[in-house]
Backbone:
């Protein structure tokens, strides 16, 4: 009885994790809008974190906090929980940096379209039409 | 022993203290970085001496025994690349006259994280150090004062890098689900029975994606040319020349410890070959000097990946040699291009404007191609030797390598011919500033010194490679606390993916 319940929990957790990962990857690959891509990224991260948590689950285990009440009880694996805590913090940092860059990019170009950005980058260094720029420089002194 | 910890702690300490100190005493920005790097270099030299006298050592943190606690493993390979990282950053410091606070902080973070990445013996710890390094690189790539292009390039870099890192974390999660441990030596013991199946290899592929972004491996290197074309040359030099090698060394460690004698070698070989061919062709077609150098750096790193994929010490030795040679040459080339940021045809006749730097460019390019007796030749020669000795697919791969060397020769010599063309002096380019020329000449001087002493360096590298592939020593040293009671290894709880 207990084992069967646990098996379903595993199935749901792993399916959920894989679904989130695929959804996140889909969002990252298929959309051109920067904010949507960032949302895809956070879905992907959530999926991976859920996968880690599911990997550390023990059927019938309690939260791994050692107190008098939980002494001797079966606990879920604490290591993935510590890892996920770290991974969440890293994810938040990366997303904050990404949003800051999105603001900068939007201020500069007025667009959040990925293809437009790629076109801008591909034009570096800006092709200088030789006669005009040189004549402007020569004219100034 | 405490030195290895200081390698990581000192740069982090400096990085986090720098903004506070800067507020009260601004000149600290000028000397804090070099002071930290020089002390790191001294510590690394001490460790090098200790490692070559006594042999590899390991540190266990926090009093937790090895499979649970985090360990640092200090062997010649790790110390060699730590020295490369610190010396490289120091040389690039020489090239910066106007120092900006946040760039200094980020470079210190990269240094600390890179040292940790080389030394750490715990898979998740590796991931954390790698993420610190990655985030600092995104920041550095965006750090140009004018030009939103660098922001856009950094954003694209970040999206690719963060996606790949998440997939890498998924790989770590898979490995943990399969084995129940994250300690590399414990994993090395468990790997043959748990990780050599299809799921374990999928985990390796995911890890390769995770670390491959920084290592500029094949499908994940679209950011390379964008970032290197838009960020300041000093940053490109740091990322291309130094940071990328560290990621590849981590891949080597995982390959040797966890996936020796599996098809993971062939996976790395395939990725390397595809990267090599695509990068050299792209470099041949590129019309802008920075992008040519960026693609050529992808090609060199792919060569390094091919070398690392060859089993046995010969391949490792060739890979280390290729990496160190590239770390010497590519930063210098990037620094030369600061004032040559132009389309290739605008470089025509530049050599008559600035003879010294054009001569340096030719020398570095020749070494990159692999013209004897320059060190680049020996690195490629060792790669060919290792490949022919390994036979099989590796021998076939060498023909592709030779073909790509021909393409490389073609485009680098084309640039050289343009530089020395007899024409009116170019209008858009000016001689490199002296502050950039100083590190270039220093690196060029080191290159000549290496040329003169190839034989002893080759012997040293061969010894290092021997010790690197000796995974038994690695396991013994990091799990020494478990040595007395080997029954633990079998009784340690291992779990399967399914309940």
Residues:
């Amino acid at each position: 009885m207990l084992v069967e319940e646990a098996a379903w929990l595993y199935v749901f957790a792993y399916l959920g994790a894989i679904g989130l990962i695929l959804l996140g990857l889909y969002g990252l690959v298929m959309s051109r809008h920067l904010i949507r891509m960032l949302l895809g990224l956070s879905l992907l991260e959530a999926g991976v974190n859920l996968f880690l948590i599911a990997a550390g689950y023990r059927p019938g285990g309690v939260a791994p906090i050692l107190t008098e009440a939980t002494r001797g009880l079966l606990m879920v694996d604490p290591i993935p929980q510590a890892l996920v805590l770290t991974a969440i913090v890293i994810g938040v940092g990366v997303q904050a940096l990404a949003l800051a860059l999105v603001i900068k990019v939007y201020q500069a170009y007025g667009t959040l379209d990925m293809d437009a950005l790629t076109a801008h980058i591909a034009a570096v260094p800006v092709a200088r039409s030789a006669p005009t720029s040189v004549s402007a420089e020569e004219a100034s002194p | 022993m405490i030195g290895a910890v200081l390698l990581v702690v000192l740069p982090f300490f400096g990085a986090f203290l720098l903004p506070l100190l800067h507020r009260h005493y601004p000149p600290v920005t000028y000397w804090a970085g070099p002071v930290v790097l020089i002390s790191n270099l001294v510590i690394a030299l001490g460790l090098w001496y200790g490692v070559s006298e006594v042999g590899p050592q390991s540190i266990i943190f926090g009093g937790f025994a090895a499979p649970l606690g985090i360990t640092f493993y200090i062997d010649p390979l790790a110390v060699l690349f730590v020295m490369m990282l610190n010396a490289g950053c120091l040389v690039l410091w020489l090239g910066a006259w106007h120092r900006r606070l946040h760039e200094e902080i980020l470079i210190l973070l990269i240094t600390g994280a890179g040292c940790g990445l080389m030394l750490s013996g715990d898979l998740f710890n590796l991931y954390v150090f790698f993420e610190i390094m990655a985030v600092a690189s995104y920041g550095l790539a965006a750090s140009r004062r004018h030009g939103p292009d660098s922001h856009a390039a950094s954003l694209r870099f970040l999206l690719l890098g963060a996606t790949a890192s998440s997939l890498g974390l998924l790989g770590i999660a898979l490995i943990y689900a399969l084995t129940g441990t994250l300690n590399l030596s414990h994993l090395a013991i468990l790997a043959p029975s748990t990780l050599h199946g299809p799921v374990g290899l999928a985990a390796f592929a995911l890890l390769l994606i995770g670390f491959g972004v920084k290592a500029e491996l094949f499908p994940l290197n679209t950011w390379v040319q964008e970032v290197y074309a838009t960020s300041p040359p000093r940053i490109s030099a740091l990322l291309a020349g130094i940071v990328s090698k560290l990621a590849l060394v981590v891949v080597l460690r995982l390959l040797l410890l966890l996936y020796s004698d599996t098809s993971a070698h062939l996976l790395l070989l395939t990725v390397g070959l595809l990267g090599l061919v695509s990068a050299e062709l792209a470099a041949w077609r590129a019309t802008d000097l920075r992008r040519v150098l960026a693609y050529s750096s992808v090609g060199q790193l792919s060569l390094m990946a091919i070398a690392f994929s060859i089993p046995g010490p010969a391949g490792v030795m060739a890979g280390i040699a290729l990496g160190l040679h590239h770390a010497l040459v590519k930063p210098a080339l990037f620094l030369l291009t600061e004032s040559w940021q132009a389309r290739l045809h605008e470089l025509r006749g530049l050599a008559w404007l600035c003879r010294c730097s054009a001569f340096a460019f030719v020398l570095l390019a020749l070494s990159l191609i692999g013209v004897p007796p320059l060190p680049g030749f020996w690195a490629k020669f060792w790669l060919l030797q290792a490949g022919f000795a390994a036979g099989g697919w590796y021998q076939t791969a060498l023909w592709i390598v030779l073909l790509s060397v021909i393409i490389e020769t073609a485009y680098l010599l084309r640039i050289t011919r343009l530089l020395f063309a007899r024409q009116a002096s170019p209008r858009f380019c000016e001689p490199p500033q002296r502050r950039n020329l100083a590190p270039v000449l220093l690196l060029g001087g080191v290159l000549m010194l290496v040329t003169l002493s190839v034989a002893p360096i080759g012997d040293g590298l061969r010894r290092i490679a021997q010790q690197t592939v000796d995974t038994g020593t690695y396991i013994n040293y990091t799990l020494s606390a478990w040595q007395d009671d080997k029954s633990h290894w079998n009784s340690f709880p291992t779990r399967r993916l399914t309940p």
